[in-house]
Amino acid sequence: GTSPTDKEAYALAHVILGASSAVDARRPNARRLLDAALDVLNRHFWDERAGAVVDSWSRGWRVLDDYRGANANMHAVEALLAASAAAGSARCLEQALRILDRFVNHAARDNDWRMPEHYTAAWIADRSFNADAPFDMFKPYGVTPGHLFEWAKLCCQAAAAAGPSAPSWLVPAARRLFARAAADGWLVDGAPGLVYTVDWDGSPRARQRLHWVLAEAIGAAALLAQTTGEATYRDWYRTWWAFAEEHLIDREQGSWRHELDATLEPSSTIVAGKPDVYHSLQACLYALVPPGPSIAAALASDPGPSADGGAEPGHRLGVGPEPGADTGE
Question: Is 290 exposed, middle or buried (0-12, 13-18, 19+ CB in 10 A)?
Answer without folding.
Answer: middle
